[in-house]
Each structure stands twice: as structure tokens, then as C-alpha cells.
Amino acid sequence: xxxxxxxxxxxxxxxxxxxxxxxxxxxxxxxxxxxxxxxxxxxxxxxxxxxxxxxxxxxxxxxxxxxxxxxxxxxxxxxxxxxxxxxxxxxxxxxxxxxxxxxxxxxxxxxxxxxxxxxxxxxxxxxxxxxxxxxxxxxxxxxxxxxxxxxxxxxxxxxxxxxxxxxxxxxxxxxxxxxxxxxxxxxxxxxxxxxxxxxxxxxxxxxxxxxxxxxxxxxxxxxxxxxxxxxxxxxxxxxxxxxx
Length: 244
Description:
Elements: H1 2-13, E1 31-37, E2 44-53, E3 56-67, E4 72-75, E5 77-78, E6 81-82, E7 99-112, E8 125-127, E9 132-135, E10 146-148, E11 159-161, E12 172-175, E13 190-193, E14 205-207, H2 209-218, E15 224-230, H3 231-241
Parallel strand pairs: 1-15, 4-7, 7-8, 13-14
Antiparallel strand pairs: 1-2, 2-3, 5-6, 7-12, 7-15, 9-10, 9-11, 12-13
């Protein structure tokens, strides 16, 4: 009896077993936009959508061809941390490097030159006008912010004119990279319409307008996470991050 009691007490007093980390994808995220490229410096990528059901990711729809920044991918600041995760290597995103952001990020606000969101959309949508900007001046207090400049005291020397950009910004989804912002770590990262399948971006992920419209219609407020990686990194992090 004494031996049994000691075993029970030892078990009760033992520290709890560590549970496997769920990775950087939040437990409350039910949608995943996964972007993969052949390598860090490649400009062509594939976008896949997944819905989480019973803890497992189920692919939705067909893969979407996309283009990345003119220099490929680089680790950004997001839900995965700042720069490369432990045990991984690769370039780190800085302002003006022409690279799209690798890592895990929330998808933020939806904007566009189109007067209304795509049919069936339920995410909030802000129509752009001639006074909308995305500030890319690291010295500005509004660095890495999308805003209507009309009511704002301007303190920047550089910003994207989102209306003048033209049809590329007919539809725009903000990627929550570098938030809160650190100067020179990259700004104005979007999903937007591509110019063509052969034209890379300045650091965003772009695709054909019908495909982006379908993606926006699928999104649910606060539920979507964007994840971009070279394929070798996706394979290397699959178990640790519980990826499809």
C-alpha cells in the first residue's frame, strides 16, 4: 500500500508534460492563404487556400498562379517573430529590397479602386479615392500605414499614391507585416492585382483580378492568416508549424 501511495504522489507532483507548440498560426484562425515559391530568389509563386476543419487544413478551390517581389522572398516581422525563426536561415526584409515578406501574418483591411467589394464579400471594404496613400517614408509617424491624407498633417516625403497606381490596386488586401512598425523593416505589403504573369512586384504578392476577387469573397473577418515561404522552408517547418 505504501509503495502504491508513493507512486501516486510522485505522479501527482511531477511537472506537467509540455504540449507541442501549435506554431505561429493562431488557434482562432480558420482560413489560411498559403503562398509558396521554388526558392528565396524566385519571383513566381503559387497561392493555395485552406479551411481549418476539426484541427486539419482542407484545401479550397484550385491553386492560383502569382508573382512576388522582383527579388523574391525575405523573412518579415509577423506572427512567426522578427526575421528568421530559430533554426532557419534566409534573407531578412528591409525597406526597398524588392522582396515579398516570408513568414506568418494576419490579413488586414481590404481596399480598392473598384467602387464596391467583389460579389459575395463579407469583409469590410474601403473604396479608394485620389487622396489615399500608403506611407513608405521610415521617418514618418505614419510609416507603414494606409490612410486618407486629406485630414492628416503630412509628415512624410514618400508615399504610394494608391489611386494613381491604377488597375493594380483595383483590389488590395493588406498584409499585417511590420506592425507596429519599425523603421526601414518594410512597408505597404499587399495582395493586389498583377500587371501580368511575367511582371514581378516591388514587394507584394499579385495575381489575376478574378482570382483575387474570389479570394476576397472567401475571406471571413478576422479569420484569415497569410503564410509565404519557399517550398523547402514549408517542408522544413511543416511539423513544427502544423502546416498543410
